[in-house]
Amino acid sequence: MEVGIVGLPLCGKTTLFKALTGNKIPVKDKEINMGAALVPDERVDALAAVFKSKKVVYASINVVDMPGVDPDDRKSTSRFLEGARSVDALVHVVRGFESDLVPHPMGRINPKEDAEILDTELIFADMEMAEKRLSAKKIPQEEKVLLDKASKVLEQEQLLVYGDSLTEEEKEQLKKMGFVTARPQMYVLNIEESTSKSLIDDFTMFAHEKGRLSLVVNAELESEISSLEPGEQKAFLEEYGIAEPAVVRLAKTLYDLLGLQSFLTAGEKEARAWTVKKGATAVEAAGVIHSDIARGFIRAEVVNWQDLVKVGGWKEAQQAGLVRLERKDYIIQEGDVLYFRFHV
């Protein structure tokens, strides 16, 4: 999964990028920064403790920090579009904090207006792209029909991903063509400790009315905490009343946004979280690990991670009747621990 962090200049995008990647990636201003955000998972930790696994592998998110989109600087939009046309989803950061050191370019704090400004910029960019493709001398009729439909949605100042007149298949086609607004989007309201509850509530309602998922994050604080050792991180998160670090909350929201879920594997060698689409079958999950496992699939042994941890291992789970044998068409459930039987 690859997500792009987008927003207007000085909204705190890069600070959020640092918080997600643990301040381990060197960053450059006004450039595309890329890094992997590991998603801590208590289930993987618990399984690793049971099996005394030599290696722990969390799920990860490839994060792309895009240059800020300045409506008065077309070059910034061009640099942004270079990266935005290839990601799976966009995380739209909006500013909810004051700062004398880093004043808002427009001299005010208005998250809703900032969100609307970026939406407008993205819509204009996609309109230009549609017009360019439609002006081509040779264009397949099916593509022309789809581009005409997309243009009508954009003319109504709607993002393509929320266009009611477009089917899910058409949205996926437009996404593959590189249309930015065909990508699922969510908001992150970047706050400070003194941000008012009314501003947060007002923006949360705004996001809900727009049909978008949203998170509230103090990116500066979480960036500082992410630099600490795991034990210290937990203490500071508790001190500030933060139930889970930003990377975990963002991952959960992105999984909902993109229709993803996790399954787990565990043993002496490693404990690991894997990502699949909701509704994925056992054989599809096997293919995520290795194509040979999918090709030679025989059966999948399945047990819930909590049951497995509670009894203390595979043998104990089998003796307790907790392990099921499932066929290729078994639908993976969130938190399943799988062991694949296969022959190549």
From TrEMBL:
Pfam families: MMR_HSR1 (PF01926), YchF-GTPase_C (PF06071). Keywords: ATP-binding, Metal-binding, Nucleotide-binding. SUPFAM superfamilies: P-loop containing nucleoside triphosphate hydrolases, TGS-like. One of its GO terms (cellular component) is cytoplasm. InterPro entries: ATPase_YchF/OLA1, Beta-grasp_dom_sf, GTP-bd, P-loop_NTPase, TGS, TGS-like, TGS-like_dom_sf, YchF_C. Gene3D superfamilies: 3.10.20.30, P-loop containing nucleotide triphosphate hydrolases (3.40.50.300), TGS-like domain (1.10.150.300). Its cofactor is Mg(2+). It comes from the Bacteria. Residues 259-342 form the TGS domain. GO terms for molecular function: ATP binding; ATP hydrolysis activity; GTP binding; metal ion binding. PANTHER family: OBG GTPASE FAMILY (PTHR23305), OBG-TYPE G DOMAIN-CONTAINING PROTEIN (PTHR23305:SF18). This is GTP-dependent nucleic acid-binding protein EngD. It comes from Coprothermobacter proteolyticus (strain ATCC 35245 / DSM 5265 / OCM 4 / BT).
